[in-house]
Specification:
By secondary structure, this protein is mainly α. The protein has nine helices and no strands. It is globular and about 40 Å long.
Length: about 150
């Protein structure tokens, strides 16, 4: 990995982690939607394991408002309170399983998982992260996802 790639990764992760929970969700949804055709060949081999499938199914079975609540809790583990789903399943996943989990969620956005509204405009901070992550190197993007998930 070159120093430019390391700098890109550190800067991207830092900016992402400074976002609020809803901005983090929107960045993940928008980026995964854009690159979902390219991720499986590199990182997932399009294989969904039982743990990720179970968690995706749990979220799909929730009403849409609760889906958002559950996803918020997954991207911001520090939130205290009741959970819509058992978050320990997610926290016990390895990074590749988390990558697969978010990929499979993205595949279902707008169908069985609440989607990003067509008229949604990301915040200025979220747009900065998205713009930074528009990289032709998909492996850099996968490395970013692995660091933030």
């Amino acid at each position: 990995m070159t120093s430019t790639n390391v700098n890109f990764l550190e800067q991207s992760v830092s900016k992402f982690q400074s976002l609020d929970t809803d901005d983090r969700l929107s960045v993940l949804a928008l980026l995964y939607t854009e690159i979902s055709d390219e991720i499986p060949a590199i990182a997932l081999n399009d294989v969904q394991n039982e743990k990720t499938a179970n968690l995706v199914a749990q979220i799909q079975n929730l009403p849409q408002a609760e889906q958002v609540f559950a996803l918020r809790q997954l991207v911001h583990q520090g939130e205290v309170g009741e959970t819509a789903i058992p978050t320990q399943e997610y926290t016990s996943m390895n990074v590749d399983d988390k990558l697969a989990f978010w990929y499979h969620l993205a595949q279902n956005l707008g169908t069985t998982i609440i989607g990003v509204p067509d008229d949604y405009i990301p915040s200025e901070k979220a747009t900065e992260v998205i713009d930074l992550l528009h990289t032709p190197n998909i492996e850099d993007l996968v490395n970013f996802f692995k660091r933030v998930l």
